[in-house]
Amino acid sequence: MKRLLLTSxxxxxxxxxxxxxxxxxxxxxxxxxxxxxxxxxxxxxxxFGAQGGSAGGGEIGLAHGGGGAEIRGDFxxxxxxxxxxxxxxxxxxxxxxxxxxxxx
Length: 104
Prior knowledge:
Layout: E1 2-7, E2 9-15, E3 22-27, E4 33-36, E5 41-48, E6 70-77, E7 82-88
């Protein structure tokens, strides 16, 4: 069993010589989701980071959290492999001028 830790949203796409690409999107649910690989092949996995928490109040006014990154990689996976996918959420805002926390 393979485990992926992703943030905000992830996209899993299958590319094989005989097939066109199909995509599965995973959004934040608060739970780990199992995904069983339907066919042996090369999969492109893309993960998008969530925006960070914002800071507000005090003398500095409102400062928005930073944008999330995007990463992508190609992986050779075998039919029947199970990926455990954990999708996190956006960071929380802070009312007292400090930066917000990370997502869950």
